[in-house]
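Weekly sync, protein design subgroup
Attendees: M.S., D.O., the rotation student, P.L. (late)

Item 1: inverse folding check
M.S. brought a backbone from last month's batch and wanted to see whether the design step gives back something sensible before we order anything. D.O. pointed out we never logged the input encoding, so this time it goes straight into the notes. Structure tokens as presented (335 positions):
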């Protein structure tokens, strides 16, 4: 306020009293903006900025308003330069308030959410259609970006967005791998990522992830195939991760680099971008000797340590489904 008072004194000295009073009133009175708005202030001179703000309804329109804006900007120049950015202007913001925003306010931040379990193709499409970003989406490896909600400024490149998400994934992998439980039987963080991607696609129930991770780790340790449906679907869908029809028995056993019904051990690489919870489930799996799991008909899974116990659960599910037809295909005895 001291600087504004000084500026007003200068106005009184430099211009006639009536003009000075009008200028003071113009600078302080409520502006015409009825509701708060985000506005992109482009690079340019004070006059072009004033014209842009007038056309947006933030400042009064007309030559005299623009002249007043130029004078007030000059008199308050010690407050700093005007910045070009997307900025938020509240309703009825005054000319002085507008100048404060142009000089000191942080740019508007937009949000992008990458859900857990999407494939690289799905993530690339999501980023490509995200507004206010610039440039094309770069190619990136499956599982290399971290599912996360991030914020960004208008005009940031899609390359920068992908690199940020890749950095988050790398940091998460390094942290969790360093703190993993002993004796997992995985060679490196990349194998942890690959297994976590399967766990991510097998269940949406948080409490089941450590159990499913344990099943797969136990099967790997015994040389058993993982037999995970999502790995077959990944190959069949050319990396999209979803099919437009029910998975058939023939498709389930069709050879592919990721299909764990057809190959032993882990697939060639991740089948999606797993979230932190799935990564933690593999780094810190539940204890136990479970080797099998099957849907329980109530939105979860039943876990078994022997094939006989597993087959009993499969039979119970089939009976449940027969009693509630129509309900879908018969459950497969998997893994």
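Designed sequence read out in the meeting:
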């Amino acid at each position: 306020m001291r600087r504004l008072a000084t500026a007003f004194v200068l106005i009184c000295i430099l211009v006639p009293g009536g003009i000075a009073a009008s200028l003071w009133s113009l600078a302080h009175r409520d502006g015409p903006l009825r509701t708060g708005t985000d506005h992109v202030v482009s690079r340019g001179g004070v006059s072009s900025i004033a014209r842009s703000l007038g056309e947006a309804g933030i400042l009064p329109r007309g030559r005299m308003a623009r002249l007043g804006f130029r004078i007030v900007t000059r008199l308050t120049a010690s407050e700093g330069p005007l910045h070009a950015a997307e900025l938020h202007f509240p309703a009825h913001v005054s000319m002085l308030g507008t100048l404060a925003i142009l000089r000191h306010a942080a740019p508007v931040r937009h949000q992008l959410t990458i859900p857990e379990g999407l494939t690289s193709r799905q993530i690339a499409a999501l980023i490509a259609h995200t507004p206010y970003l610039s440039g094309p989406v770069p190619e990136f490896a499956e599982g290399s970006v971290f599912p996360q909600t991030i914020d960004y400024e208008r005009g940031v490149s899609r390359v920068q967005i992908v690199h940020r998400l890749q950095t988050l994934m790398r940091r998460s992998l390094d942290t969790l791998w360093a703190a993993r439980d002993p004796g997992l039987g995985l060679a490196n963080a990349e194998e942890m990522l690959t297994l976590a991607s399967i766990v991510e696609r097998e269940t949406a129930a948080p409490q089941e992830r450590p159990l499913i991770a344990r099943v797969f780790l136990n099967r790997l340790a015994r040389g058993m195939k993982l037999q995970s449906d999502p790995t077959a679907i990944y190959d069949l869908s050319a990396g999209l991760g979803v099919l437009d029809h029910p998975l058939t028995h023939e498709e389930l056993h069709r050879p592919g680099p990721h299909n764990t019904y057809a190959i032993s051990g882990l697939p060639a690489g991740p089948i999606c971008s797993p979230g932190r919870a799935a990564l933690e489930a593999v780094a810190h799996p539940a204890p136990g000797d479970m080797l099998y799991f099957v849907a329980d008909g109530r939105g979860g899974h039943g876990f078994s340590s022997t094939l006989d116990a597993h087959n009993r659960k499969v039979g119970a599910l089939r009976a449940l489904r027969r009693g509630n037809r129509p309900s879908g295909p018969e459950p497969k005895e998997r893994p």
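Discussion: DSSP finds 13 helices and six strands in the chain. The mean pLDDT is 91.
Action: P.L. to compare against the previous round before Friday.
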